[in-house]
Amino acid sequence: MSLQGCETFSRREVIVEKMVYVHPKVPAEMLENCGTPLPISKEEYLALKPHKREDYLTRYSIDVLTELEVCGKKVKSISKIVTDFQKEADSRNAKDEKVK
To answer: Which among 4, 21, 34, 43 could bridge 89 via Cys, Cβ 3.0 to 4.6 Å?
Structure first.
């Protein structure tokens, strides 16, 4: 048994002159602040009894503040990731420049 081929593989030599480290870019829409939950309509609110209105406003305020806190943390964490990647890329690029 023998194994034959039609063509031999040629080797190409690749010379790397400069390495550049890049970081991923986060789309701008991901860095925007998030929206808040929508309140019930004016008619629905006015149809509630006074103690139910107070209860609704309290719960709605808590929901809005919670959503804002979550969104704020998300934006801060994304910004930190981008900043960390940029610092790492800058330090690696600086090291490569010194090697030359």
So the answer is: 21
Residue 10 C-alpha from the chain's centroid: 43
Q: Give the domain range for residue 36.
A: 28-99
Residue whose C-alpha is closest to residue 40's, from 63, 68, 69, 72: 63
Domains held by the chain: number: 1
Confidence of residue 98 (pLDDT cuts 50, 70, 90): low
Locate 88 and state its tokens.
């790492």
- DSSP class of residue 6? S
In whole angstroms, what is the distance from residue 35 CA to residue 38 CA?
9
Determine, yes or no, domain membership for 21: no
